[in-house]
Amino acid sequence: MEYSKKLTNYKLQANAGFTLVEFLVVMGTAAVIAAISVSAVIRPQAQADLDGEVLKIISDLKSQQLGAMIGLTSSTTLPTSYGIYFATSTYTLFRGTSYNPSDPENFSVSFPLTVEMQSTTLATSTIIFTRLTGEVYAYFAASSSVVFHNTVSLATSTLTVNRFGALTKTP
After folding, report:
1. Rounded CA gap, 64 and 87, in Å?
2. Which residues pair with 95 in a beta bridge?
3. Residue 121 neighbours by CB distance under 10 Å
4. pLDDT of residue 162
């Protein structure tokens, strides 16, 4: 009797564990949950990258407008206009009534790899603030916006400027 009891316990122990099918079902479920959670984490991060970059551009635009209004000068003694030029992966802060790519005083800022300018209605892709008033130089209402997008999440954000230099951001 003692021997048969040991044999039964041995059989139960030998059969304890998971089958291959059970293991594959659990691993498949874990993979699906991991994929959903990773996409739920990446999407907000991509939107935060876009929002952060657009806020940085707004700050730089306001800085350029302020420079024009108070007459900031560096190498000249006369107040001058200030502006910003947009390209697909960068934007450039400049001084003067037109963008000159060879001006050594230009300051270029690169977008993060996940953000780029999608389109613009701005003439020559520039916004120029008039000296002393800070109003947008040669303003035309139909050409006053820049659209940025995130290359990961495909989210977009539009920046629109009015003739006084006030900015509106729409997600």
Report:
1. 17
2. 82
3. 15
4. 93
